[in-house]
Amino acid sequence: VKAGGKLTLSMKKIKVRARYTEIPERLVVNVDNLGLGKTMQIGDLHFEGLEMVSPKEAVVCAVQLTRAARGAAAAAGQEYQGTRHNIGFRILDAFAEASNISFSTDRYGDVGHGRIKNKQVVLLKPSTYMNLSGNAVRYWKTKENIDLENILVLVDDLALPFGAIRMKGRGSDAGHNGLKNIAQMLGSDAYPRLRFGIGSDFPKGCQIDYVLGQFTLDERQRLPLRVDVACDAIRTFVLAGLQTAMCDFNNK
């Protein structure tokens, strides 16, 4: 794989359909050209005489940053601070500060532990590539023994007006690779998520530049209030549950 990368195996078994006489003893896959942060899915595998039964979108393996390369990537990632795509981290930072929770670097990202009244919370800012964030979520879900319905994923959303908040308990990934990977790693899309609207005021073909761009002056002036509302929504989710949070904040 590419320099600075570490190959991780996500699936140990693959279901195939074939004639008994054509079942191979082993399958060999070339990963020489698999780049950093890239994944190989079932749909990428093609073997003569074999039909893949496992879901095409299931991740077989991925190339993650090594610890040394992750440090370099983190330094380079400073340029994304303040961008629309970074709004989830910004909200979580604000929530952590308001809750007197500090982060420390740990497995798969920066992690903070604390309590909100009688509720214990674990905050996670994955250091993986966004499209591999499911690895971090699955690891900390298992380590902390967190039930699926108690996970809340923060995500930016082009389909919502700037500052709008929508919470729901499950749903499709709507083309968001991070949500897609989380569902794959957890084996379910029935995990709560908070979508924060970033709007879609960009010319055709400029979506990437828009998402990775800075907020406008007007948006920056309005953003602190909307971040506070998102933090209140998270706090309500922790203390009162998803249904109450949805009722209180989905139209606020």
Describe this structure in words.
The chain has 252 residues and is of the alpha+beta class. It is built from 7 helices and 11 strands. The protein has helices spanning 67-76, 87-98, 133-143, 177-186, 207-211, 217-240, 242-249; strands at 5-9, 16-17, 39-41, 51-52, 59-65, 104-106, 109-116, 119-126, 153-157, 165-168, 193-197. The strands form 4 sheets. Strands 1-5-3 form a 3-stranded antiparallel β-sheet.
- Helical content stands at 25-40%
Distance between the termini: 47 Å
**Biggest sheet statistics:** 3 strands, antiparallel
Rg, alpha carbons: 20 Å
Total strand count, please? 11
Feature tags:
7 helices, single chain, 21% strand, alpha+beta, 252 residues
Map the helices and strands.
Blueprint: E1 5-9, E2 16-17, E3 39-41, E4 51-52, E5 59-65, H1 67-76, H2 87-98, E6 104-106, E7 109-116, E8 119-126, H3 133-143, E9 153-157, E10 165-168, H4 177-186, E11 193-197, H5 207-211, H6 217-240, H7 242-249
Parallel strand pairs: 9-11
Antiparallel strand pairs: 1-5, 2-4, 3-5, 6-7, 7-8, 10-11
